[in-house]
Amino acid sequence: MNPLPNLGAGGDSLSPYRQFSRDEWAQLRADAPLTLKAEDLERLKSLNDPISIEEVVEIYLPLSRLLSFYVAATQGLFKATQRFLMAERETKLPYIIGLAGSVAVGKSTTGRILAALLARWPNTPKVDLVTTDGFLLPNAELAAGGLMERKGFPESYDTAALLRFLHDVKSGQKSVSAPLYSHLVYDRVPGEERVVESPDILIVEGLNVLQPARLPKDGTAIPFVSDFFDFSIYLDGHEDDLHRWYVTRFMRLRQTAFRDPRSYFRKYAEIPEAEALAVADRLWTTINLPNLRENILPTRQRASLILTKGASHRIESVALRRL
What we know:
Pfam families: PRK (PF00485). The chain is an alpha/beta fold. It has helices at 22-26, 38-44, 53-85, 107-118, 139-144, 159-170, 239-254, 267-270, 273-296, and strands at 17-21, 95-101, 127-131, 175-182, 187-197, 201-205, 231-236, 305-309, 315-321. The chain starts with 16 loop residues before the first strand and ends with a strand. The model is unreliable at 6-11 (pLDDT under 50).
């Protein structure tokens, strides 16, 4: 069970969040235009994520409008600081949005839709999307350290490289590279990189983006990944639903990507259906569920915004942290 704690209704001044029903949140769209077409949505959504245009209109357009205000306010603060420091030539820094949540909750779809909407603002900002998958340690290193069954847990990431990447982006470097990851081969792609060049907005999506850093034994302070974020989103769902979505996605992948001869999971496309269901259940129960409970779900209260999905994958409520 992972019910959302009592965050308080919109008028509860004792809660750090203002909570909205889907209908209440949808009313905040105001005049934000719908710039995505049905064919755009089909291209952006992930397998087993039945998102609709209605969801875009009622959830993501209000969020896009809110972020437009936040980005404009941040830019205004930057200009005020420039004037104070008499440093008018200083480079404007990117606005970074973190996106967290469990495996199978729909982070990839949310990230792509949000990036597409933000890039369609009237002033056409440059928006980039990076996932933390590229910062997973290579499979060879994970295997050598006995960590293949811990892939996705905090210790399976090159956190130092992720922190350097975010530091360089937030410092205004014009071109910053991140390792490229392939879900087909389930590993980093040797020699391949994802280059981010002077974005106005960068969305960083991954399981681990809101997790606190682990202090080294010598007590040296190191930053959290989320220290570099201007705004953060946690995509939430009940663990029973997450389990069901994960298994359903696994079974659909048996009919699609797993059949590719290059797929790391090719062997699961050939086994009987009942055996495949047992494998999916085992992977969820022994890897993804413990990671959710131990490392991902505890970070939910660190997010600026919590989007909670119901059993149908539809976002049912929104909680916005008070400023």
